[in-house]
Amino acid sequence: MRKILLSVLFLCMVMVRAGYAQEDSTVIELNNLTITENRMQTPFSESARSIYVVSREQLQQIPVQSLNEALSYIPGVDMRQRGPAGVQSDVSIRGGTFEQTLILINGIKMSDPQTGHHLMNLPLDIDNIERIEVLKGPGARIYGQNAFAGAINIVTRVPSEPMAIFSGYGGDFETFGGNISVALPGKTYGQYIAVSRDQSEGYRTNSDYEITNAFYQSYLQLKEGKINFLGGYTQRAFGAAGFYVPDSEEYEEVNTTFFSADYELKKERWTLQPRLYWRRNHDDYIYIRSNPAVFNNLHTTHVGGAEVHATYKSDLGLSGIGVEYRYENINSTNLGAHDRSLLGLFAEHRFYLFDRLDITPGIYLNWYSDYGVNLFPGLDASFDITDEWKAFANIGRSFRVPTYTDLYYVGPNNIGNDQLEPEDAVSYEGGIKYFRRNFWGQLSYFKRDASNLIDWIKYAEDDPWEPLNFTNVNVQGVEAGLNYDFSSSKSAWIKQLSLNYTYLDAELKEREGVLSRYALDNLNHQLIFGITHKIVGKLNHSLRLRYLDRASLPDYSLLDSRIFYKTDYYHVFAEATNFTDTEYSEAGYVPMPGRWFRAGVTVKLSLKK
Questions:
Q1: How many Cα atoms are found within 13 Å in the side-chain-facing hemisphere of 215?
Q2: Could you give the 3-state DSSP secondary structure of residue 136?
Q3: pLDDT for the residue 314
Q4: pLDDT tens digits, residue range 70-105?
Q5: Angle subtended at Cα 240 by Cα 235 and Cα 241, rounded to the nearest 5 degrees
Q6: How far apart are CA 259 and CA 65, in angstroms?
């Protein structure tokens, strides 16, 4: 691994030097990017947290066809996929379990009370996304429950020009997909609708899939304020061989629907944003695909919520307050019928001392119908050493409530535990950042002390998996990254260059000698190198190299590549994932695909009158 790291680092230094020689005035200004939190809006360069942002331009360069695949290139994020094209994935941040990451769309929580396996059932195509914001570390003070190890906020978009977009691709294993979208923006009213379809016969027995997405977004600009509406539907049907049980004939169909509406008002020193949202998920699980009568689970969850967020800017700084109500319900042939409610209050204040010290204390207070009252404080602080160098630190408490699967599941290989308590953790981080227009780097140390951690365990191979609260699990690590972006520059040969490394050490304090299903399945080492460069004219090449060393599995390296030709009105690509045909697994008992070729085209038609 040391040879790989040194070689990639040397290549980065040479290419950055070459890229700077062609610097022009059209570079991306990273320090002007604003991170979208539910209350406060923080410039990327001023944040006292570890935040990683993937822009729309970068999403169009990497060799992926789904959001799930795109997240696998983000440092500190561990995507444990059970197949290609985002069929089903477990996402974790900094060694957390798949239940400990909160997914949001434009600040709207997408968590599912049945199981975190449905967390990534999102009706989004790559074309629908403006950027991805990944917050690493405790997020309870900002977002509330389940932002235990971090949060991923997907910011969607309505294109600025009226247009129709058609895209399609095909590849190995009878894989093909397509997307049709129409954007009708306006000064007072705008809307965007997109429909996509992906399917494949699969790369092994019982790995076929069909994914259909529909997405709608609109806005209405009023005399005072703005109304936003968001809605989507996704249907996924897939062979799930080995997803949960070795050598199985499992099959699953999942349908997810969500809607949200909010109102944005900015007046003098105040901003106000009330919001309503609803999410429904239906899961049909079949243990033996050819004989559904043997074991078939049907689960339907409903989640509804209301939030109000406000900020006030004064001579003392920026204050943020918020209140939320959330209702969760499940009706299941296996888990039974249950419901629970949550009421939460947010408060935070950002202020400066000596023009260089930026401090944001905050607190989240909630009442859970099943678990009573809890308090979750947090503190972020940063110090401007120079205009380009910043030191930062943060501390916070976070929590995660058990899912209904944790509590009540009964099956041939798994059994729930209705005595589980919520997970709790205190996390710390400190580090240093460097910003210079299109270049930024970061080095940080982080630690998470978790108590009552929930993990599925067993004491012997023949025992069923059962969730228990562990007394203490400590995770610590180091992240280092260099990122260079000239994506919008027409003359630069290097468009994008990055090198990121994450080291994790997880220590299970008690209950040693048990078999752990999730808690100690973290990555020990993660190295991600990426480069996008111009070949000639508008023809570009993107290369991604990943080295992953997981605690419980053999280490492996993956090489992905895309060649693409892009203009204002069409985009043609050819790509290969796992170019070296590496054998590896990320989750469950599922061998991931070998070398996979795909090619496609996107055409944009202007609808201007």
A1: 25
A2: strand
A3: 93
A4: 999 999 999 988 888 778 889 999 988 889 999 999
A5: 165
A6: 24
Mean pLDDT of 314-343: 95
CB neighbours of residue 513 within 10 Å:
6
Between 191 and 41, the more confident residue is 191
C-alpha–C-alpha distance, residues 118 and 96, integer Å: 16
Residue 346 domain boundaries: 2-606
Mean pLDDT across the chain: 88
Instruction: Determine contact, residues 526/2, Cβ cutoff 8 Å.
Output: no
pLDDT digits (tens, 9 = 90+) for 361-374: 999 999 999 999 99
Q: What does the pLDDT read at residue 183?
A: 94
3-class SS letters over 189-207: EEEEEEEEEEEECCCCCCC
Could you write out the DSSP letters of every residue in 394-424? EEEEEEEPPPHHHHH-B-SSBB--TT---EE
Angle at 88 between CA 83 and CA 89, to 5 degrees: 95
Q: What angle do CA 540, 543, 548 make, to 5 degrees?
A: 165
Alpha-carbon distance of 351 to 316, in angstroms, equals: 6
Residue 465 phi/psi, 5-degree rounding, is -70, 135
Q: How high is the pLDDT of residue 508?
A: 64
pTM equals 0.92
What was the pLDDT predicted at 512?
A: 62
Residue type, 238: F
Q: 580-589: buried (b, 16+ CB within 10 Å) or exposed (e) per residue?
A: eeeebbbbbe
Distances from the Cα of 595 to the Cα of 530, 576, 581, angstroms = 19, 7, 5
More confident residue, 461 or 354: 354
Answer yes or no: are the C-beta atoms of 52 and 522 closer than 8 Å: no
Which residues are CB-contacts of 291 (< 8 A; sequence separation ≥ 6)?
A: none
Q: What is the CATH number of the domain that holds 303?
A: 2.40.170.20
What secondary structure does DSSP assign to 524-550, as a single string? EEEEEEEEEEEEETTEEEEEEEEEEEE
Report the share of the chain in percent with pLDDT over 70: 92
In angstroms, rounded to a whole number, what is the distance separating the alpha carbons of residues 502 and 223? 48
Q: Number of helices (H) and strands (E), helices first, in the chain? A: 5, 32
CB–CB of 426/397 below 8 Å? Answer: yes
Please give the tally of structural domains in the chain.
1
- Cα 353 to Cα 164: distance, rounded to the nearest angstrom: 50
